[in-house]
Each structure stands twice: as structure tokens, then as C-alpha cells.
């Protein structure tokens, strides 16, 4: 599965442009990776070769200050999810739980 945010559907790329979104790989640390998956209400990320989230899912405070490109702090956790922007297929495939609001 392809490029971009694992969770957001394509029309949001317009938003990406507007807000200059960045894309962030899931943490290498297994513990933190688990936290991200849980926070995202995902059942798995294994179908994705390069799982990434866009910066839309993170509060501003999650990013390091004064960096040229947006870099997440090591302890950053995604907290912002808007169901209507999510890929429908994720729900259909059971990758995303219905309870996400
Ligand atoms: Zn996203």
C-alpha cells in the first residue's frame, strides 16, 4: 500500500498542501509503536510496507522547534483523528475499528 498517510483518504491532500503536511513513520521502538497503533485504533499495520501518519494527527507540541523539516519529538503520540477523513477501506478491511470518532 502506497505513499502518504496510512489513515487519511486522498481528498485531504488538498489540506496537506494548505497546511504543508509532513509524513512520519511509525516508531521503531516496539513499545511506542504499540502505543501509536492503539491510539490510532488500528488492529494492525502489517499490510503496510511503509506505515506513516501525516502531521495532521499530532498536536503542535509534538514537533521539535526550530527545525527545517518537521521532526517529531521522540515521545510524540498521535491524538487527532477525524473519522470523515479516514479511508473507508480501512473500516471495510477491519484494519480500523468502527469506534473511532
Ligand atoms: Zn493522516
From TrEMBL:
Pfam families: THAP (PF05485). Residues 1-81 form the THAP-type domain. SMART domains: DM3, THAP. Keywords: DNA-binding, Metal-binding, Zinc, Zinc-finger. The keyword Kinase does not apply. The keyword Phosphoprotein does not apply. InterPro entries: THAP2, THAP_Znf. One of its GO terms (molecular function) is DNA binding. This is THAP domain-containing protein 2-like. It comes from Aphis craccivora (Cowpea aphid).
Amino acid at each position: 500500500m502506497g505513499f502518504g498517510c496510512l489513515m487519511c483518504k486522498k481528498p485531504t491532500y488538498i489540506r496537506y498542501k494548505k497546511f504543508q503536511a509532513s509524513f512520519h513513520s511509525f516508531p521503531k521502538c516496539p513499545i511506542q509503536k504499540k502505543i501509536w497503533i492503539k491510539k490510532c485504533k488500528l488492529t494492525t499495520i502489517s499490510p503496510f510496507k511503509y506505515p506513516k501518519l501525516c502531521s495532521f494527527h499530532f498536536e503542535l507540541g509534538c514537533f521539535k522547534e526550530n527545525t527545517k523539516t518537521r521532526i517529531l519529538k521522540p515521545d510524540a503520540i498521535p491524538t487527532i483523528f477525524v473519522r470523515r477523513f479516514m479511508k473507508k477501506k480501512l473500516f471495510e478491511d477491519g484494519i480500523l475499528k468502527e469506534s473511532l470518532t
